[in-house]
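Box 3.1 A note on notation
Throughout this textbook, protein chains are presented in two layers. The first layer is the amino acid sequence; the second is a token string describing backbone geometry. Keep the layers aligned when reading.
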Amino acid sequence: MNNPNGFFKLTGRISRRKYWVLFLIFYWTNVIAMIKLYEIYILSDLISFVAFGIVLITTIILLLIQAIKRLHDIGLDW
């Protein structure tokens, strides 16, 4: 549980390959979630709309965390 290279630790190291793999996974998850959100909006299914909305927001936040870690690794700290 106290992994120093944890997923949510902003100061950890992340390789270029790991970043690109995570980026592609989260990107396609976001695209699929947005397509499903549109379909569900047309069908007026509130529960599924909320579920895919949560998936979309979660993947955006996780991608942002990984991007911050990558920027930290290449020396762009603030």
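The mean pLDDT is 81. The two ends are 28 Å apart (CA to CA).
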